Amino acid sequence: MSHHIVEAIELCHRYGDGTQALTEVTFRIHHGESVALVGANGAGKSTLLQHFNGVLLPTSGAVRIGEVPLVKETLRDIRRTVGMVFQDPDDQLFSPTIGQDVAFGPLNLGLPPADVEARVRAALDRMEALSLKDKPAYRLSAGEKRRAAIATVLSMTPDILVLDEPTSGLDPRARRQLIGLLRAFHHTKIIATHDLDMVLDLCPRTLVLHEGRVKADGATREIFADEALLAACHLEKPLTMQGCLMCGEKRGI
């Protein structure tokens, strides 16, 4: 079985205050898939993402990466396989320069300095952010911060990339650039987002979460065409699938 596979088996998570965030969530994501997690605020998207590399552990049920169950004893190995990009880039950019941020993970793997430098340059170049290497995070735009945060994950050469609201706060040009860069990542991608038009561009498969449960799992365009499902889960169609207000015709996709 490929180590790129992500599997949730009757996954439940209850926070310390008693809030039931996830209930009996079950699905399987295969090697190379690009899968979106969509749902209204509070649906459980971020909670679910944080189970994929052990930021959170299940209250009951299980998460598996390939054949490896996600438990405290396997966190180190799983975090080498699953790269997590948080919603707020400032959660991942804390060093004096972006280059040092991107080097942090490889240095903690004990790699030789030359190998660390090669990984830093490769990750930044892949995100078209090599010019940011010697800059501090506070001098970057929102789009530059987002690309730098993703580079900190890519420097660990993950097989699975997990992103929480990657286009949040970006202007249209930065959003288009980021979508193009993510499209070039050909390993497994799992993206939690409210940006349903981005989902159409990047993710052939979508899981819909509502009140901590999986309400739908299937082809993205079929799910977004199901108006009853979207209404029940407090979602709306992507703009590119909505009718023109002037003529009533659907926009081109």
Description:
By secondary structure, the protein is α/β, with parallel strands linked by helices. The chain has one domain (6-241): Rossmann fold. The chain contains 9 helices and 10 strands. The chain has helices spanning 45-49, 75-81, 98-108, 113-126, 142-154, 172-183, 196-202, 220-224, 227-232; strands at 6-14, 20-29, 34-38, 60-65, 68-69, 82-85, 160-164, 188-192, 205-210, 213-219. The strands form 2 sheets. Strands 6-7-8-3-9-10 form a 6-stranded mixed sheet. It has a 4-stranded antiparallel sheet with strand order 2-1-4-5, with no helix packed on it. Strand 1 and strand 2 form a beta hairpin. The chain is globular.
Number of helices: 9
| pLDDT < 50 stretches | none
Q: What top-tier CATH class fits best?
A: Alpha Beta
Biggest sheet features: 6 strands, mixed
What integer value in Å does the Rg equal? 19 Å
Helix-strand category: alpha/beta
Mean pLDDT score, rounded? 91
**Count the strands?**
10
User: How many separate domains make up the residues?
Assistant: 1
* CATH homologous superfamily identity: P-loop containing nucleotide triphosphate hydrolases
User: Which architecture does the CATH hierarchy give at level 2?
Assistant: 3-Layer(aba) Sandwich
**What name does CATH use for the topology?**
Rossmann fold
